[in-house]
Specification:
The protein has about 180 residues and is α/β, with parallel strands linked by helices. The protein contains seven helices and five strands.
Length: about 180
């Protein structure tokens, strides 16, 4: 059931990679807004152990994952948002990069604080199996040759394999240890 409270909302994540928890968060936020702006955070980073995927690859993963669960593309926008490295101006940068929004969906304490200080309404999102569904866990499972595919949508798992994401994660980890 959709209970629209706001016209537009904002949800940001690094999506390194997109996992089932991200999809759950987006669908929960979409129950409360007519349009959701999804920010690809740390958009300028890629090809390092914590940020192996490019902003374009994360955009594609989000589209694939949301298509897989039947989310109407007209109900959301995806915007790359680079980091400023200065917390006090980050919200202003987000506002400059995105269409107008009324509410922010986040469970991150710093993100909550920064947006509240800037006068935005901030809502939490119920987690989905947070003990397993977080991107570091997915990357670590890929790195260690463990089963990871069930943690991400099937279309995302296929895409990660297609773009050489498994080898990339493993190669970047080796480089990091040199």
């Amino acid at each position: 059931m959709k209970l629209v409270k706001w016209n537009s909302g904002f949800y940001v994540g690094r999506f390194q990679p997109v996992h089932r928890g991200h999809v759950h968060a987006v669908t929960q936020a979409l129950r409360q807004v007519k349009e959701l702006i999804i920010g690809i955070g740390s958009a300028q980073f890629s090809h390092d152990p914590q940020n192996p995927f490019t902003a374009g690859e994360r955009f594609t993963m989000l589209r694939l994952a949301l298509d897989e669960v039947g989310v109407d593309r007209a109900s959301y926008s995806i915007i790359p948002v680079p980091d400023t490295q200065v917390h006090s101006i980050w919200v202003a940068q987000v506002v400059a990069y995105t269409p107008k929004f009324e509410v922010v969906f986040t469970n991150d304490a710093l993100c909550r604080q920064l947006f509240q200080e800037a006068g935005f309404k901030v809502e939490g999102i119920p987690y989905l199996d947070r003990r397993k569904l977080y991107a570091t866990n997915v990357r670590n499972k890929i790195l260690n040759g463990e089963s990871w595919e069930a943690l991400v949508p099937a279309s995302v798992a296929k895409y990660i394999v297609q773009i050489g994401g498994i080898d990339r994660i493993r190669n970047l980890a080796r480089t990091d240890r040199l």
